[in-house]
Amino acid sequence: MTAYQASEDRYERMSYVRCGRSGLRLPALSLGLWHNFGGGDAIDNGRSLLRRSFDLGITHFDLANNYGPPPGEAEETFGRIWKSDFAAYRDEMIVATKAGYRMWPGPYGERGSRKSMLASLDRSLMRLGMDYVDIFYSHRYDAETPLEETMSALAQAVRQGKALYVGISNYGPEETRRAAEILRSLGTPCLIHQVHYSMYERRLEQGLQQVLQEEGIGTIAYSPLARGLLTNRYLNGIPADSRAAGASAFLRREDVTEEKLEKSRKLQGVAEMRGQSLAQMAVAWVLRQSRVTSALIGVSRAEQIDDLAGALDQLAFSADELAQIDNILGGKA
Ligand SMILES: NC(=O)c1ccc[n+]([C@@H]2O[C@H](COP(=O)([O-])OP(=O)(O)OC[C@H]3O[C@@H](n4cnc5c(N)ncnc54)[C@H](OP(=O)(O)O)[C@@H]3O)[C@@H](O)[C@H]2O)c1
After folding, report:
1. In whole angstroms, how far apart are CA 143 and each of 105, 150, 164?
2. Ligand 1 center to residue 225 CA distance, Å?
3. Residue 98 has pLDDT above 80, yes or no
4. Is 194's C-beta closer than 6 angstroms to any atom of ligand 1?
């Protein structure tokens, strides 16, 4: 591939939103590398996804120690592409990683102990070929480790200069409140909570959202497209090159149910009336009323990024549109 030169107008279309009460602004769209950056994926496609994203003003790239497959491979791939294409742009990029899920054998290869969290971060930095990440997350709550220990491991990463900010993911409302208090007392406020949120997954609205607002923590919504179900991908069957047809354990053929498809078809009707694709409406919906700082998307091809970036042209919803969507989701339409 030819040498990369970022597009000059890359900051013109994207909007940047203050993350909670921090000084950090995140793009309305962030790119996740959970899929499509593993060992079996073409690195040139990964490169074109990263280039296209950055050219559109997507400055935030989300990883975790275990993304691949095999686990660790997405950080390796990102590190390689960063070195060849983006090294000159490090100060224009937010790179995030996480620890918490199983990475190596034995009792220290997962969960939230100080031992596991800090060893994992060191391994991530090696794979990435970077001195620091911008955001280091606890990927999941670990009831077997005192929360003080996990949170102080995050704060220690910042003191060591290996992370600039810290975040948590998949924590419930009460655990989030306690984590925020501990982190504040350690002088390392919780920047962000990474939470599963889409029209098909609304648990965020049952208490967590309020805690995040009160604590001044930013919200990044992962899988806003319900892993592809809230797009046109499956409306006429399961394409051979789609996630559900592949090896992902998180969207299997049997998850593409007729009930979901029926709802998605009706939602597509609402999207069409708004002049959007279903995927664009799904992104706009999580970002509605500024509840969410950034929508954390996944893509398998560059055209999907172009489509999703178009969501920013039409973020507002009328009360009537929101009611129609709720009726469809609730099975009343
Ligand atoms: N913290 C956590 O525990 C956690 C958990 C899950 C995810 N995440 C983060 O969230 C990121 C996003 O997750 P996700 O990939 O599940 O998100 P998603 O945005 O809900 O789904 C992405 C999939 O939707 C399809 N798609 C995307 N844009 C499209 C478009 N314009 N038109 C049609 N189809 C489109 C693609 O499917 P095809 O591949 O079939 O083309 C793509 O792979 C991950 O990479 C990761 O960083 C975090």
Report:
1. 20, 10, 26
2. 6
3. yes
4. yes
| Listed residue (14, 60, 256) closest to 165, CA to CA | 60
Query: How far apart are alpha carbons 75 and 69 in whole angstroms?
Result: 11
d(CA 239, CA 40): 19
**Mean pLDDT of all residues in the chain?**
97
Ligand 1 pocket mutation, candidates 223, 241, 252, 312, criterion most atoms within 8 A of CB: 223
Q: Which of 296, 305, 308 to mutate to test the pocket of ligand 1 (most atoms within 8 A of CB)?
A: 296
- List, in order of start, the domains of the chain with CATH numbers: 16-237+281-316 (3.20.20.100)
Helix (H/G/I), strand (E/B), else coil: 225: coil
Q: Is the dihedral of CA 15, 289, 61, 226 positive or negative?
A: negative
Q: How many CA atoms lie within 13 A of 42 on its CB side?
A: 7
Q: Are strands 25-27 and 16-18 parallel, antiparallel or unpaired?
A: antiparallel
Give yes or no for a contact between 49 and 77, defined as CB atoms under 8 angstroms apart: no
CA of residue 114 to ligand 1 center, whole Å:
30
Angstrom distance (rounded) from CA 222 to CA 196: 5
In tens, the pLDDT along 133-151 reads 999 999 999 999 999 999 9
Take residue 24 and report the two structure tokens written for it.
């950090």
pLDDT (tens digit per residue) in 287-298 = 998 889 999 999
| pLDDT confidence of residue 91 | 98
Is there an atom of ligand 1 within 6 Å of 35 CB? yes
- What's the gap in Å between 320 CA and the centre of ligand 1? 28
pLDDT digits (tens, 9 = 90+) for 47-90: 999 999 999 999 999 999 999 999 999 999 999 999 999 999 99
How far the first Cα of the chain sits from its last, in Å, is 49
Return phi, psi of residue 195, to 5°: -135, 145
pLDDT at 1 over 80: no
What would you report as the CA-atom Rg of the chain, rounded to the nearest whole angstrom? Answer: 19
